[in-house]
């Protein structure tokens, strides 16, 4: 009987190690829970929108310059 | 704006990746944890670099056929912008490595060959800078570029797969695609790649247009 109980306990220990592999991967759940991750997303989005507006304005300036340049050539 | 719709598409795709990439569900994996989200930002840098180098080599072939100066300019600017994206790929990869492998840089075949590939392209720019005569510079540059591209492909995609490597998707190490790039991640990963590739081509186009005008004034 003792043998069976011992082997059962040992088997249960192996279940605990499985649990460790699957369940306890640390993720940023706290930040998500408090809602502060959205602040980070907001900041990065603002930065990227700013940069893309800047790219568009460079593009526009360059197009204007090209137009003037073509008029001068002809 | 009708001609520039793809620029807007690039911006929209990347804003989507920033939001979805940081908020959508990702698989819970040991060691990687939340850093798996780097996949949406680190990998597109390399894809952008490769697409820019590919366009560059196409224009180099075109130049050798046509002798048209503008084809040469397009080829150079492809490399100029591609190198920037490659350096961004190295830097982001290095930071990611610090927090997953525990070191900024290791002598891993993937890392070393990626670095060598970028150095080969830097050498292309140095080579061009050292030649004064325009047509000679363009022709030698084009030939060098045509040789550099297959070497880069072998260095980045073939050699690291033939030996052991820490980097996912290489020797003895499955890529994210094989087991954990699930459907949710693909929904973010593909737009990220398309978005960054378009941004790369946009910057390349801007640089090309500036160069074209510059050359016109220089020839006056």
Automatic annotation (TrEMBL), chain A:
Residues 1-19 form the signal peptide. The chain crosses the membrane at residues 35-56. Keywords: Membrane, Signal, Transmembrane, Transmembrane helix. It holds the Pfam family CcmD_alt. NCBIfam families: CcmD_alt_fam. This is CcmD family protein. It comes from Solitalea longa.
Automatic annotation (TrEMBL), chain B:
It comes from the Bacteria. The chain crosses the membrane at residues 5-24, 44-64, 76-99, 111-127, 139-159, 187-203. It is found in: Membrane. It holds the Pfam family Cytochrom_C_asm. GO terms for molecular function: heme binding; heme transmembrane transporter activity. GO terms for cellular component: plasma membrane. Keywords: Cytochrome c-type biogenesis, Membrane, Transmembrane, Transmembrane helix. Residues 9-160 form the Cytochrome c assembly protein domain. The keyword Ribosomal protein does not apply. GO terms for biological process: cytochrome complex assembly. InterPro entries: Cyt_c_assembly, Cyt_c_biogenesis_CcmC, Cyt_c_biogenesis_CcsA/CcmC. It is a multi-pass membrane protein. Coiled coil: none annotated. Belongs to the CcmC/CycZ/HelC family. Required for the export of heme to the periplasm for the biogenesis of c-type cytochromes. This is Heme exporter protein C.
């Amino acid at each position: 009987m003792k043998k069976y109980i011992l082997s059962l306990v040992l088997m249960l220990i192996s279940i605990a190690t499985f649990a460790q592999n699957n369940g306890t991967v640390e993720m940023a759940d706290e930040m998500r829970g408090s809602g502060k991750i959205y602040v980070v997303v907001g900041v990065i989005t603002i930065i990227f929108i700013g940069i893309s507006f800047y790219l568009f304005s460079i593009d526009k300036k360059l197009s204007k310059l090209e137009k003037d340049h073509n008029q001068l050539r002809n | 704006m009708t001609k520039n719709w793809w620029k807007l598409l690039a911006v929209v795709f990347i804003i989507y990746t920033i939001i979805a990439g940081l908020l959508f569900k990702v698989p819970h994996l040991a060691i990687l944890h939340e850093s798996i989200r780097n996949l949406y930002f680190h990998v597109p840098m390399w894809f952008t670099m490769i697409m820019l180098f590919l366009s560059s080599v196409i224009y180099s072939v075109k130049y050798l056929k046509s002798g048209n100066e503008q084809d040469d300019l397009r080829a150079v600017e492809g490399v100029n912008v591609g190198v920037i994206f490659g350096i961004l790929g190295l830097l982001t990869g290095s930071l990611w490595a610090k927090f997953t492998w525990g070191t900024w840089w290791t002598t891993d075949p993937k890392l070393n060959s990626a670095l060598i590939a970028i150095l080969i392209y830097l050498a292309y720019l140095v080579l061009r800078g050292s030649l004064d005569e325009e047509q000679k510079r363009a022709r030698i540059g084009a030939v060098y570029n045509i040789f550099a591209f297959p070497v880069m492909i072998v260095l980045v995609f073939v050699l690291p797969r033939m030996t052991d490597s820490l980097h996912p998707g290489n020797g003895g190490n499955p890529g994210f695609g094989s087991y954990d790039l699930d459907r949710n991640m693909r929904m973010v990963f593909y737009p990220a790649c398309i978005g960054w590739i378009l941004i790369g081509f946009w910057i390349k186009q801007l640089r090309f247009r500036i160069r074209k005008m510059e050359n016109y004034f220089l020839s006056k």
